[in-house]
Design brief:
By secondary structure, the chain is an alpha+beta fold. The chain contains 4 helices and 12 strands, in the order H-H-H-E-E-E-E-E-E-E-E-E-E-E-E-H.
């Protein structure tokens, strides 16, 4: 698949040049290919982006075995990659987390903060998704541009199952009669929170300082 896409992209570029299009660098090639709306998904990574990424990398990263033979890399968890010598887009198209073509897993040493001091912001990348201890804890999720508190029920490498409260006003929530449990992408979880507090016999609110911070986002 990747090889066919590369050939298709190269032939399209050759056709543009043969029709008089001047393409002296990668950025102009990227723009030209976007203009013709190719079916292949393209990304442009500038030299500055690469330099910034290299500067942010630790100096003591372990070496991934057989680096020169790697053809496909998938990452679902911070500090961990799945790699193989042949690209595969089989039944697990959304995550590509299959075991085809002798897939291998490599884990880097990554320090993840398990908790966030009260009053400081936290984003999805800082939540220890690899730690099952967060099951049963409270979090805030984003759904249709609204914020809902809920209890974490289960999790995997890319998603988290949350039983959410329903919303009745600004920072006012209640438990529905029927459990509202959905799987959310990790990035849809805004942050972990302490349990909401009661404001009436049925309604609850998120800590007001936390609500002020996350609602401003």
């Amino acid at each position: 698949m990747r090889f066919r896409n590369a050939i298709s992209t190269r032939r399209t570029a050759d056709r543009l040049v043969s029709h008089g299009k001047d393409i002296p660098n990668a950025e102009l090639l990227f723009s030209a290919l976007l203009d013709i709306q190719m079916s292949v998904k393209l990304f442009y990574i500038s030299e500055e982006n690469i330099d910034e990424a290299i500067k942010s990398m630790p100096n003591n990263l372990p070496v991934v075995p057989s680096t020169m033979r790697i053809y496909q890399v998938v990452t679902l968890t911070p500090g961990q990659i799945i790699y193989r010598d042949v690209s595969c887009l089989c039944s697990t198209r959304q995550t590509m987390e299959c075991q085809c073509y002798n897939s291998k897993t490599f884990t880097f040493e990554v320090q993840v903060t398990a908790s966030t001091p009260e009053g400081k912001s936290q984003n999805s990348s800082e939540i220890p998704w690899q730690n099952s201890d967060i099951i049963g804890q409270w979090c805030c999720v984003k759904y249709d541009d609204a914020i809902y508190p809920g209890l974490i029920q289960d999790l995997n490498e890319t998603h988290v199952s949350v039983k959410c409260m329903h919303r009745i006003g600004v920072n006012r929530f209640f438990w529905p009669r029927q459990d509202d449990v959905l799987w959310y992408l990790h990035e849809d979880v805004i942050r972990m929170i302490p349990p909401p507090t009661s404001v009436t016999s049925r309604h609850m609110e998120i800590d007001r300082d936390i609500w002020s911070k996350i609602s401003d986002l």
